[in-house]
Amino acid sequence: MLYSLSIVFAWMRGDTPFNGWAPIMIAILLVGGLIMVMLGVVGEYVWRINEEVRKRPNYVIRDRL
Q1: Where are the domains of the chain?
Q2: Among candidates 18, 34, 36, which has minimal Cα distance to 4?
Q3: C-alpha distances in angstroms, 30 versus 5, 18, 50?
Q4: Which residue has the higher pLDDT, 50 or 8?
């Protein structure tokens, strides 16, 4: 990740050409990170749907007088 940032900053300054494996790796890391974030969002959404579908009571009465 730090290497990706250093490559991008060097490219922005004009120190190095932007070729080789660096752009491919940066793209793979960014896309992979976005996929993981979206997977987390979908997982949270499914978890909340599952909790709502269970329809558990807020409390349970053990004994009645």
Answers
A1: 2-54
A2: 18
A3: 11, 16, 30
A4: 50
In 1-65, where does DSSP find H-type helix? 2-13, 21-54
Phi, psi dihedrals of residue 3, rounded to the nearest 5° = -65, -40
Under 8 Å between Cβ of 26 and 5 = no
Residue 54 to residue 63: CA distance in whole angstroms: 23
Q: Do 25 and 4 contact (CB within 8 A), yes or no?
A: yes
Q: What is the pLDDT of residue 1?
A: 67
Q: In b/e form, how buried is each residue of 4-27, taking b as 16+ CB within 10 angstroms?
A: beebeeebeeeeeeeeeebeeebe
Calpha distance 7→60 (Å, rounded)? 59
